[in-house]
Amino acid sequence: MNPSTTSTGLMAELFGSAGYSTAFSIDAAELAFLRDAIFRQWMARIETVHPELADAFQAGGMEEYGRLSHLISHETLWTKKYRVFPQEVVATLGQFDFLRRLTGALGGQARICNCVFFSGVVPNHPQIHWRLVRPNVPSDVGPLHADRWFNDMLSNGRGMLYDEATEFTVKMWLAIYAEPGLNGLYVVPGSHRKEWRVKHSVAADGNTRPSLDEPLADYERLLVPTAPGQAILFHESLLHGGAVNAGSTTRVSVEITFIVASSITQ
């Protein structure tokens, strides 16, 4: 995103016909820091649970994780709690220019949502987490959904995550390792302007998740081609979902949810 980008310009994109923006990216040093932070957290988890495999995973690196993942229980190792950055990493990221620029573009008072789990919210721990999507593993990605549905479901209408009367959320999805056009994030342009029918299903982990319960009809699903370091910013009501990885290496991405004052759109 150009440093001169204004909050008005970004909001015009997020509330406009598309509902998302691809104008924002991070620099090489910021990308290198995120890659290193994820790698260290990834390796620490493997070393704890499977020390006998640590050397093999380290030698292959994260991009080749899918080649060895059959040796471990992927679903058990990588529940969300093990993919949330610890406080010290979040604190360091807070000093980076990309967060300053993005917060400014979101009105200056935007804040990162606290960690949210199905068991509740962790106070005073801004949530920045990462995802792994292996090549040709459909179960590594979820169905189309809108982030607002999770707040509605988890809070039972009480605004547990934020106050829907005065605030809304903007998600940043950031490519860390990606092959443009072969993996990444699907968006449905314009879908934030429609009220969609939602269903709630119990997933393999025993938790209930919301998803789309009607056909897209005239709307189209678009795989946004994103190179490492490029972000997609999108409105909380925009339909989106991970694409099955058609590439040859593991896709790694970072997600941050920003809570923004509704007054910025007025």
Description of the structure:
- The chain is an alpha+beta fold and 266 residues long.
- The protein has one domain (7-265): Jelly Rolls, CATH 2.60.120.
- Helix content is 26%, strand content 25%.
- It has helices at residues 7-14, 28-49, 54-60, 65-68, 74-77, 87-93, 97-105, 147-155, and strands at residues 20-21, 111-112, 114-117, 120-126, 128-133, 167-177, 185-187, 198-202, 208-212, 222-224, 231-235, 240-242, 251-261.
- The strands form 4 sheets. Strands 1, 2, 5, 6, 11 and 13 form a 6-stranded antiparallel β-sheet that branches.
- Strand 8 and strand 9 form a beta hairpin.
- The longest helix has 22 residues, at 28-49.
- The protein is globular.
- 32% of the residues are buried.
Annotation keywords:
266 residues, 26% helix, alpha+beta, three-stranded antiparallel sheet, Jelly Rolls, disordered N terminus, globular
CATH topology: Jelly Rolls
CATH architecture: Sandwich
For the largest beta-sheet, the strand count, sense and barrel status come to: 6 strands, antiparallel
Radius of gyration: 18 Å
How many discrete domains? Answer: 1
CATH top level label: Mainly Beta
What form results from the Cα inertia axes? globular
What is the mean predicted local confidence, pLDDT?
A: 90
Low-confidence stretches: 1-6
